[in-house]
Structures are given as C-alpha cells and as structure tokens.
Amino acid sequence: MEALLAFSRPALDWHALAPELTLLAFGTLITVVDIIWDDRSKQAMPTLAGMGLLATLLPILTLAVDGTERSMFGGAYVVDDFSLVLKALFLISGYIVILMSVDYIRDGDYYENEYYTLMLTSLLGMVMMSSSRDLISVFVALELLSIPAYMLAAWRKGGARSNEAGLKYYLMGVFASAVMLYGMSLVYGLAGSTTFGVIAQELGSGAANPVAILGILFILIGFAFKVSAVPFHTWAPDTYEGAPTPVTAFLAVASKTAGMVALIQLVFVAFPGRDDVVQPFFWLIAALTMTIGNLIALRQNNIVRLLAYSGVAQGGFMLVPFAVAAEAPARAFEAVVIYMAIYAFMNLGAFTVVLAVARKTRSGEIDSYGGLFQYAPGLAVAMTVFLAALAGIPPAGGWFAKFGLFRALLDAGGGWAASLGVIVAINTVIAFAYYARILVQMWFQPVPDGDERPIVITGALRAALAVTLVATMAFGVLPGLVGHFGEVSVLSALGG
Amino acid sequence: MEVTGFDTWVLSLAVFLPLVGALVIMLIPKAYEAELKLVALGSSLMALVVGAYIAVQFDYGAAGELQFVVDKGWIDVINSRYIVGLDGLSLPLLLLSLVVVPLCLIYSWNHIPDPGNPKAFFVLLLILSTGMNGSFVAQDMILFFVFFEVVLLPMYFLIGVWGGEDRRYASLKFFLYTLFGSALMIISFLALFFLSKDASGELLQTFDMRVLTDVAGVGIIKSTQVWIFAGLFMGFGIKVPMFPFHTWLPDAHTQAPTVGSVILAAVLLKLGTYGFIRIAIPFLPEGAIAWAPWIGLLAVIGIIYGALGCLAQKDMKRLIAFSSVAHMGFVMLGIATLTDFGINAAVFGMIAHGLITGMLFFVAGSIKERYHTLEISRLGGLLKAAPRMGWILGFASMASLGLPGLAGFWGEFPAILAAYNPGAGMPEETFRTYMVIAAIGTVLAAGYLLWLYQRTAFGEPTEEFAGHEIADVNRDEWIAWTPFLIGIVLFGIWPNLIFNVTDDVVSGITATVEAIAAGS
To answer: Which among A327, A442, A444, A489 is the top mutation candidate for probing chain B, defined by the most B β-carbons within 10 Å of its own β-carbon?
Structure first.
C-alpha cells in the first residue's frame, strides 16, 4: 500500500509527445465522425486522415527547430534528431499510402472509415518505435503497429487470399513476438533493467554469457521476422500478394522500416559491446536475405510477388551495414537511415504504378505490362525510374543507398566486410535481371490483347506518383538532400 | 590558370545541352515529328559548337594540365564534388563523342528502325550523349561513376527496343555484364577513397581525381593496390571489352540498331580504355605494374581470338564486332606496355577504331537496310550494285586492317612497336612474345577483312539480288559519313594532330609509373 501511494506521476514533456498525441487525436476523431455521420462522412475520411498526418508533421518540425534532446521515463522514451527524422519518414510514407488508398478503398468493397483509423493507429506505433529506448516500449510500439496491420492485410474480407494473407501474417507475427519476448526476458534477467542504456552497460563487452547470447539472438530473430529476413521471410510473399495493394505497399515500406528502426536502436544502443554476437548474425542474415530474395524473385510472374521478393532482398541490403556496426558505427548507421529513406520513395513509387496499371488491366501478371510504353508512356517512364532506382543505377535515387552500403563496408575494412561487399555487388546484378523483366514487357513487348486505351490516373495517384518520382530523382541527382538527414539523424547514444 | 566568365560554363554546356534537348523533346507531343528531330539535332549541334569553341580556346601548350576546370560543391556528406575539366587526353575523346552523336541523328533522320517512335529514339540518344561527354570530363570519381552509369539504360533500351531478333537476350547480357563491372568499380573507388594517403601519411578521404593522380597511390601498399586494381580492371575491362569478358559485345553489336552499334563502337568502348589511362594506372601505379603482363596477355589473346572469331563469322555485323575485340586488344596491349609510346598509340587507336569501326557499322547498317540481310554468303557484287558504297566499304576495311596512310595504322603499329621495349620493371621477353603474337594478329586482320570485302563487294551480285535495284549512298548517308571518312584520312596522314595533344598527359602518367618502378 505504501509503495502504491508513493507513486508519483513521471514528468511529461508535452511538446515531446505532441506528435503522438496529434496522431492519436485524429485517429479518434475519424472514429467519432464515423459514429456520428456514418455513411455521409465517407468522402471526408481520406482527407481527414491525410490532414492528421500532415498536422502531426508540425510538432515534429517545431521539435526539430527547437533541437534539444528530450528524454522521458528514465530514458525509455527519447526524442532526438534520429527519432524525428524517422517519424517524419513514417508520416510521409503513410501520407503517400493514403493517397494510394483513396480510390482503391472507395471503389472496392471495403470498410472505409476503419481502414483509415487502423492506418493511423499503426503509424502511431511506428512513430513511437523511433523514440523507444526500452524493451517494454519497443514491444508496446511493435504490437501497436502490428495488430492493425494484421487486420489491414485481411481487409479484402471476401477474398480467400486476403484472409490467408492476414492470418499468415498474424500467426507469424505472434510467433515472432513470442520468441522476442522470451529473449527479452533473458536479457532482462541478466541486466536487471529494461532500459537500453543499462542493458548496454550490464551486457558490456568481453567474454559473453551464453544466456546473454541466447537472449540477444532471440530478440534479433524476432525482428528478423518483422523485416522478413531470410529464413524468416516465408510469410511475406503470400501476405503481400493477398493483401490489398496499398496495404502491401504499407507493409513493404513502413512496417519494414519500423522493424529496421527497432534493430538500429537495439544494435547501436542496447548491444553496442556485443558485436561478437551481433555482427556474425547480421553478416549471415544479410547475405542470405539478399541472395535468396533475389534468386526467388527471378522466378516470379506476378508483379506484386516480384516486388515482395525484391523487398525481401532490399531488406537484406539494409541489413548489410549492421554487420560492420562496431567497426564503422557512424557510417553503418548513416547507411541504414539513407537506405530506408530512399527505399521508401522508390518502392512506394513502384507500387503506385502497379496500382495505376491494375486499374485498367485488372491483373497482377508481369505479362499484363506488355507495351505499356505505347499506351501509357508516362507511367512506363515513371516505372523505369523506380526500377532503375531499386536496381541502383544512377541517376535514379537508389544508387546512393547502395553507395552508402559500400562506403560503410569499406570504411570498416577487412576480409569479412570486403567479401560482403562482393556479395552485394553480385546481388545488384541479379536484381537487375528481374527488374529488367518488367522493363522488357513495358518497352519491348507488344500490348497483349491489342487494347491500347490510355490509363486514367486519378488525382490522388497522380499526386503520389509526383511526390515519389520527384523524390527518387532528386535523391539520385542531389544525394546531399538525403545524405544530410542521414548525417544529422545521429542517434544520441552514438554521441553525435 | 584562372577560369573565368563563359569558360566556366563551356564544359557543363557541352555535357548537358543534349540532356536539355532531351527534356524539351519529352514535352513536345509525338505528332510534331519534324520539330522533335530539329530540337534533337539542334541541341547536339549546339553541344558540338561548344566543343569547337573548347577546341579553339584550348591551350595546346599546356595540354598536360586540366583546363576549363570547374570545382563546385555537390554531395558534401561524402566529400564528393562537381569537378569537371579537360586535358589533352580528354579533348580528342570528348570531340569524338560530340561529333558522332549529331551524325547518328542525321543518319537516323529518315530511317528510324522498327518499331519507329523517333521521339523516344532521339531522347535516348541525347541522354546517352550526356553520359558519354560527362564521363570524359568528370574529374571526381563519383561524378565519373554517375556519368559512366547514365550510359547504360539508354543503350539497353536502344538495343532492346530497336534491335534485331535476339535483342532481349543481347540487351540484358550487355547490361548485366557492365553492371557487374561497375559494382566492383565503385567498391574500388571507395577503397581508394578510404586508403589514399598523401606524402606525409595523412588520410586524404577524397574522390578528387586530380589529387589522386598527384599522390599516385604512395600510401597504399602493393598487395592492396593489386586488389583495388583488380576491381577497376573488372569495371573497365568488361567495358573495353577484354577477353574473357568480351562475349557481350558480339551479341550487343549484332542486335543493336545501326546507330547503336556505331555509338557503342565509336565511344562507349572507349570509356573502358579511358578509365585505365585516366584512373587505374595513375592512381595505382604499383598495381598497374603488377597487372600489366596479365593485361598484355589478355590483350594478345583478344587479338588472336577476335581475329579467329572473325574468320568464323557468317554475319557481316558480327564479323565487325569480333574485329572490335581484336582492335581493342591492340589498344590494351599499348596500354599494358606502360610506355609513353604505347599509351599514346592506345589513345590514337581509340580514336581510329572509333572512326573506322563506326564507319564499318554504318555501311553494314545501310547494306542491311537495302538487302535485308547481312549474311555474307548471300551478299556479293556490292561494287556493281552500289559502287560508291562498295568503295566506302573497301576504304574502311583497308583502314581497319591498318594500311599505312590511314588512321588505323597509327593505332596498331606503334602499339606493337612499344611492346618490344616495355616500361621499366616489366618482363621484356614476355612483351616481345606478345609483340610477335600481335604482329600475327595484323596478318589475320588483313585476312579476314580482305576476305570479307572480297565476298561482299567483288564479283557479280548473287542470284537472289541480281534483278534488284540497290540504291547507292543517299544524301543523309553522305552527310553522316563524310566526317568519318575525312577523319580517317586526315589522322592517317597527319597523326601528330592527335599525338601532339595527348603526349603531355601520357608522358606525365608514364613518368609517374617509372618513378614508382624505380623506387620499388
């Protein structure tokens, strides 16, 4: 009783929490509007959700201008430059996904209002993730972002594939959470605290405790599921193919980024001294993920599945810098952040084109892209830019992301890093082989059924395309733009 | 030399004017075909005029130094800058690239290959042009890399959309080979960035090619140099292409549309050899010395293999493609000697091969257009059917086999001669053996070219085409070809036009290599 009474409310920094609160407010607002006005409010929902995301960017901007680092709850929740950059990235990705969703969700037989509520809730989890520096807050953020995503994956409720997508995603996700929680309990048992800072001190460096190794590996494996790293990737293609396409884009970009963010914080803040465990794990996982993702992608005939496997492989590229996190921490960290930022735009762009084309062809087969250049040259050129970016060919944006990887690896130096660099190089080549299959269809092949009606691109899709296209090209020609964010967003724990 | 006023813009103009043209064309609707073509030709001619201005303003007395240098911030976070400049090595290659593109546009004016679409065709040619021009003037490794890669996609589409029957296979093969090379190349660039030190042992951390040329890899131990050179070798060697990475070339050339082949032969392949001379050798002299005998070996294998390949071909275009492998072998042999004489010959060989092989591909393209086949056994009697074209083919073949008095001679003969006396520290016997093999290669070259000429041009037209009216060289072709023909003769009788320009740069490079060889 005494202990309970002694509880005092922790100091709350309302400014620091403003983004989360704004997002929460809009999520709730959508639900309330839905209850009061019901069907009449449907038109306003995407706008409301989009406004919510843009409004949330405001406090992030003021926090960035303010510039002071804010730490709450004994260091469990930190608002630093890194978290702000990532929050902004999540919100912008979310905004693009909403632009992609507008027509898709309205024209299909979907619940509309709940869709946007859940989307905002999931984004809230992601926004929280980038500030979480504590096992419990990481876990809460993870579940908050995942549970709405499970439902969104099954949103096409009449379709068996969509149900399969949701269920598979849910089961694998829960399984991963269980493994992760077990790992967390082991780490907590050793460190006596859930805060990353304390864990870093307690686990320290030097000879490793086997229990600590097990705990660390379990936690990392849990997140490896989230970022669909091989061999924990098996859910991804089925889920991506079955889910509604905007949700797939959301999972492939925002959800994967959230997993990466968690990994960044774990590797750089919680286990910085344990590179003897972390680095070999990531070396292996990254090499496997890139190679296997790419090889399987070569054999896909459905474009969404192809993008799913390409996403797996891209995730592998993002994992590469973790393998040299101790030798070249600043460069490795920058490489991941830059890769995530560029990946978000180029991949969302590719999905936007897929959505636009599917509005006419009603098909996801790669063959249905035949002759796209003849009847929709704009879309074909846009897709070419996105695919070139994904393949890492200058001047489209992706080359700078790959460049960042090579830079981190060579800064670290040594045989292991160099060999991983060669694996990256080989995978870049393999990846182009399947991106080229889409290019071949669009540019070299005739229109399959001679149907050369132009594609009507709606305003929202047009906006999404414009944003992603401009960003992808700008990052390629003036990589300083994104490089700058990579540089300023240094984790507070890395010591700026 | 302080660069001021308009001169600070000229190189950027020469590089980006075609790109501006491409962007303008994209905004013009497809239906305005004549306007599209005029904009394309206009922008490439404007770039050429700027090129002429550069050639006039260029200080030939200081050809060894970079001129028209611009150094501006670009990607500060990685310490990469927008540095362009040109010296005696870049100048001829830039001019070659600036000349070839408008001629290709003129040649394609009324013959856009199937499936048509002049808009896309011209846009791609112009983007290609920007990539090529940029590669020859970039003085920052990252900038060079970006331009080097910009070339890939347009060429991929040129082959893939407007190419022959096997175009999908050929275009993909071309792309994957070069992409793999450039991925290893960028790794080597980064290794240079992280490992290069100045004379006092301070880490440089720069992509500035001027600085890296000055330090000449002093801070990097030999074994590391050998590794980094290996990466560069893959990047540039695939592009050249060197045996055994040459297999993409015959496919790409055979399937590419005529102007694609011409640009590929005239300019793109030169990016590889240029990379060796500009980057690989001066940055890593010790690595170059260690690799030179092996490069020489691959070069002479390429010479013989290319020649034997030619003798086995049934398709005229494929034959010319294999002859490219052989000719680039001579260029690489010249480079591998690491002597002033040899590298000068290599640069000359690059220009000569660009003009001559480009010309041959033009003729092959025109023959294909008239006969709808390039199968050598079905052709014949070209001199009867279309005498002017027949003579041009003969002229280009003679130039290609290295007839003294024409440009081809000055690329091959000095390269062979240089192998007699390779640079300091190199195995003399080995290079003399190479010399003998390369000399045999010239005999084979005479063999396959004369045989080709004999089978296609002499005699009576084959029965199949006996009654057909074969049009002779037309106006567009004359305009596009004349500069090539003039160049072949002019450089043949006056080789110093090029040697004088390139020698300062080349002797600077070989002096560095010699100093390093003497020191170790």
So the answer is: A444
B268 CB neighbour count, 10 Å cutoff: 23
Q: Checking phi first, is residue B12 left (phi over 0); if not, alpha (psi -120 to 50) or beta?
A: alpha
| Residues B313/B254, Cβ–Cβ less than 8 Å | no
Contacts of A291 (CB under 8 A, 6+ apart): A316, A423, A427, A430
Task: List beta partners, residue A70.
Answer: A79
Q: How far apart are CA B166 and CA A416, in angstroms?
A: 40
Beta carbons of B226 and B295 less than 8 angstroms apart: no
Cis peptide bond prior to B113, omega within 30° of 0: no
A373 CB near a chain B CB, below 8 Å?
A: yes
Q: Where are the domains of chain A?
A: 277-496
Both tokens of residue A49? Answer: 């959700």
Strand partners, A125: none
Tokens of B34: 């004549």
Closest CA relative to residue B157, chosen from A474, A377, A300: A377
Chain A interface includes B167 (CB < 8 A): yes
Are A490 and A81 in contact, with CB atoms under 8 Å apart?
yes
Please give the single-letter amino acid code of residue A109: D
> Taking CB atoms and an 8 Å limit, are B153 and A393 in contact across chains?
yes
CA distance A363 to chain B (A): 24
ipTM attached to this prediction: 0.86
Q: Which residues of B125-135 are buried (b: 16+ CB within 10 A; e: fewer)?
A: bbbbbbbbbbb
Residues A312 and A293: their CA atoms lie apart, in Å, by 5
* Cα–Cα distance list, B99 to B103, B132, B220, B475 (Å): 7, 12, 40, 18
Pick from B78, B161, B191: which is nearest to A444 by CB?
A: B161
| pLDDT tens figures, A285-322 | 999 999 999 999 998 899 998 998 999 999 999 999 99
Please compute, for residue A103, the number of CA atoms within 13 A of its CA located in the half-sphere on the CB side: 15
At residue A466, the 3 state secondary structure works out as helix
Buried b or exposed e, range A29-53, using 16+ CB within 10 angstroms: bbbebbeeeeeebeeebbebbbebb
The three-class DSSP label of residue B18 is helix
Using DSSP's 3-state secondary structure scheme, residue B446 falls into helix
Tell me how far apart the alpha carbons of residues B68 and B84 are, in angstroms, rounded to a whole number: 8
CB atoms B180 and A426 under 8 Å: yes
| A192 has a pLDDT exceeding 90 | no
> Do the Cβ atoms of A433 and B176 come within 8 Å?
yes
pTM for the model stands at 0.91
| Residue from the list B74, B77, B176 with its beta carbon closest to the beta carbon of A486 | B77
What's the pLDDT score for residue A496? 35
Farthest CA pair distance, chain B = 77
Given a contact cutoff of 8 angstroms between Cβ atoms, the answer to whether B204 and B198 are in contact is yes
Peptide bond into A19 cis (omega under 30): no
Give the model's pLDDT for residue A351. 93
B208: β partners:
B140
Query: What number of other Cβ atoms are within 10 A of residue B297's Cβ?
Result: 18
Say which residue the tokens 């460049």 belong to.
Answer: A403
How far apart CA B500 and CA A287 sit, in angstroms, is 51
Q: What Rg do the C-alpha atoms of chain A give, in angstroms?
A: 22
Q: Strand B80-86 and strand A77-79: pairing? A: unpaired
CB-hemisphere CA count at 13 Å for B290?
A: 17
Residues whose CB falls within 8 Å of the CB of residue A133, separated by 6 or more in sequence, listed in order: A75, A76, A77, A78, A195, A196, A197, A265, A269, A493
The parts of chain B modelled with pLDDT lower than 50 are none
Digit-coded pLDDT (tens) for B147-205: 999 999 999 999 988 988 888 899 999 999 998 898 889 989 999 998 888 878 788 88
The answer to whether B315 contacts chain A (CB < 8 Å) is no
